[in-house]
Structures are given as C-alpha cells and as structure tokens.
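Entry 12.
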Amino acid sequence: QVQLVESGGGLVQAGGSLRLSCAASGRTLSSYTMGWFRQAPGKDREFVAAITGSGGRTVYAESVKGRFTISRDITKNTVILQMNSLTLEDTAVYYCAADFSPSSVIFTTTSRYDFWGRGTQVTVSS
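Predicted 3D structure (tokens):
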C-alpha cells in the first residue's frame, strides 16, 4: 500500500518562503516521476512541478518558474518543493503525486499520476 503524506504548509506573508515535503511509504520513490500540483478554491487542480526518478530532469509551470524548486531526498524517500517569493496567487492546497508508469516522460496532467497525497494548505497573506 503506497502512501504519500505532504507536510510543511502553513500561513506566510507575501514574499516569504515555505518548504513542502512529500514522504512516501510502501514504495521507493527514486524510480518514479513525482509531481506537485495545487488547487485553489473554485479552480481546477493544476500542475506545479515534477521531477524524474533519477532527479536529472525537472519541469515547472510558468507561473512558478524561477521561484519554486523541486528536489529529492533519496535517503528519506521524500520529494521537496521549495517555494520562494510567494504571492497571493500561490494560495492553494498543494498535493504531491506519483507516476508509476515506466515512461521517462514528465507529464503535467493529473490523469497521468497514479497516487496522490491528501494535500497541505498553503495560505499567502498580504
């Protein structure tokens, strides 16, 4: 049974930073592409960032490029999302997801991810 658990969300002022973690149990993540998505109230869940199993390739949404960084901590079976220069528009529930397909392609659509965490709330205030 695979479980993904996000942590690190909270309330932060605009311009601040947060570090989200996604810890996995039941399967080693290092072989799989991992993604972060977010969902704001009244909006669809949207892609934020993803990283390949090897960690060699990353993809970011245009809205977060240059501000967010996705990385892996293989020793802890964890994926990290470092978020800097946060804006009000970054307020959302953030989800991590795992793509267990053998493809090396990084997908940005929710339907391509097999397992999801329950999410962690990020609220950016002015």
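Annotation: The mean pLDDT is 94. The longest strand covers residues 18-25.
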